[in-house]
């Protein structure tokens, strides 16, 4: 029987996609191997959120190619997928000539067969792509425009999970709050893709213009209510939420629905309104402060985590100190602090020079990481 091996880099969405790639292989009669040296086909599911993530994938592929060369053996078929596909076929084959095939990540269908290792907890993707245009982010270019998965498909998967004995699920999306609210707008993406022409900050659309306003109960809240009807489902988590469209009715639903996990991941990215504007995040720190106040008021046992980028172009010492003071005030349970890494093709890469020296980014990272994660050494994440 032919063997497959999947190397996954990056976030929960990639982990969930790899489960679906595995499902496709096993549906075609392959079996999984834990050793890539024994594989007939190797899939590398890549992350492009920072340069180091891309370097890790390239490093892995060069190790594979070197190994088979030194062994004088025919190398297995290598398939690349994930967020590095934003580079485009030509550039990828040039960067990594050992690749045989490129699989655009959004071709890994929501409804394909799934191979799950965990028998209690399951990842359930509810949307792919993103309609927002945070200037530093590669996701809209690598995963495309936001597509919400139909409610009936999600509920059918939950039904199947219940039959298989699952009791915990995590709903996955780049911005789960906007599930079912994305607007069309391919044109916009093309505008962002036209790299040859100068781009001005004013041309970048506000996130709110990319989504419909919910009429009545937001679709995401309705989805949580539907899933909660299953007695067998004891815990429902979701990731990732965006602060600008975290609806009051979602807060009420969490407050009154004990199945919904009390940990809420709410990336702020910066505590400076000037930097938030340059990032095109679509909210201010005052908006974020008010959201957290409402969450803590309505859900006393809520636990909040966040993401922050330090060293964003133009971030002055004053801006950084605003973020430090805001972090002390917000008292997050944990925070993924990352040093800004310019991603080719993104708006910030086109608009802003990467002015903050690496040494200074690291100093800011250490200060903020210590403030937020002093009690969470285990989550000391990204050091570029
Ligand atoms: S909301 Fe912003 S940071 Fe998150 S995936 Fe979309 S563009 Fe990227």
Automatic annotation (TrEMBL):
Keywords: 4Fe-4S, Iron, Iron-sulfur, Metal-binding, S-adenosyl-L-methionine, Transferase. Residues 116-378 form the Radical SAM core domain. InterPro entries: Elp3/MiaA/NifB-like_rSAM, Methylthiotransferase, Methylthiotransferase_CS, Methylthiotransferase_N, Methylthiotransferase_N_sf, rSAM, rSAM_horseshoe, rSAM_sf. The keyword Transferase applies. It comes from the Bacteria. One of its GO terms (cellular component) is cytosol. Transmembrane segments: none annotated. Its EC number is 2.8.4.3. Pfam families: Radical_SAM, UPF0004. Residues 2-120 form the MTTase N-terminal domain. One of its GO terms (molecular function) is metal ion binding. Its cofactor is [4Fe-4S] cluster. Signal peptide: none annotated. Catalyzes the methylthiolation of N6-(dimethylallyl)adenosine (i(6)A), leading to the formation of 2-methylthio-N6-(dimethylallyl)adenosine (ms(2)i(6)A) at position 37 in tRNAs that read codons beginning with uridine. This is tRNA-2-methylthio-N(6)-dimethylallyladenosine synthase. It comes from Candidatus Cerribacteria bacterium 'Amazon FNV 2010 28 9'. The lineage of its organism: Bacteria, Candidatus Cerribacteria.
């Amino acid at each position: 029987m032919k063997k497959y091996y999947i190397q996954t880099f990056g976030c929960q969405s990639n982990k969930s996609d790899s489960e679906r790639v595995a499902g496709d292989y096993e549906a075609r009669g392959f079996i999984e191997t834990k050793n890539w040296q024994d594989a007939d086909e190797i899939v590398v599911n890549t992350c492009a959120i920072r340069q180091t993530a891309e370097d890790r994938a390239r490093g892995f592929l060069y190790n594979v190619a070197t190994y088979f060369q030194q062994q004088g053996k025919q190398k297995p078929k290598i398939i690349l997928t994930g967020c590095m596909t934003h580079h485009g076929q030509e550039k990828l084959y040039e960067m990594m000539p050992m690749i045989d095939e490129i699989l655009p990540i959004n071709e890994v269908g929501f409804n394909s067969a799934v191979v799950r290792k965990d028998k209690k907890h399951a990842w359930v993707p509810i949307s792919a792509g993103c309609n927002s245009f945070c200037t530093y982010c590669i996701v809209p270019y690598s995963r495309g425009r936001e597509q919400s998965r139909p409610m009936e498909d999600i509920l059918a998967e939950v039904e199947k999970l219940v039959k298989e004995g699952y009791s915990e699920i995590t709903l996955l999306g780049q911005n789960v709050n906007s599930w079912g609210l994305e607007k069309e707008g391919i044109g916009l993406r093309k505008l962002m893709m036209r790299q040859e022409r100068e781009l001005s900050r004013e041309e970048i659309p506000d996130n709110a213009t990319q989504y419909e306003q919910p009429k009545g109960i937001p679709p995401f809240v309705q989805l949580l209510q539907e899933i909660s009807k299953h007695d067998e489902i004891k815990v429902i988590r979701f990731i990732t939420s965006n602060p600008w469209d975290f609806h009051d009715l979602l807060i009420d639903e969490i407050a009154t629905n004990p199945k919904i996990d009390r940990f809420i991941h709410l990336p702020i990215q910066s505590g400076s309104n000037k930097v938030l504007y340059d990032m095109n995040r679509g909210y201010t720190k005052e908006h974020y402060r008010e959201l957290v106040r409402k969450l803590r008021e309505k859900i006393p046992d809520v636990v909040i985590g966040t993401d922050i980028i330090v060293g964003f172009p133009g971030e002055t010492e004053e801006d950084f100190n605003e973020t430090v003071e805001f972090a002390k005030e917000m008292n997050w349970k944990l925070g993924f602090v990352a040093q800004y890494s310019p991603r080719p093709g993104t708006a910030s890469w086109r608009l802003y020079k990467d002015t903050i020296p690496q040494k200074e980014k690291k100093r800011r990272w250490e200060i903020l990481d210590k403030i937020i994660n002093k009690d969470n050494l285990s989550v000391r994440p990204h050091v570029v």
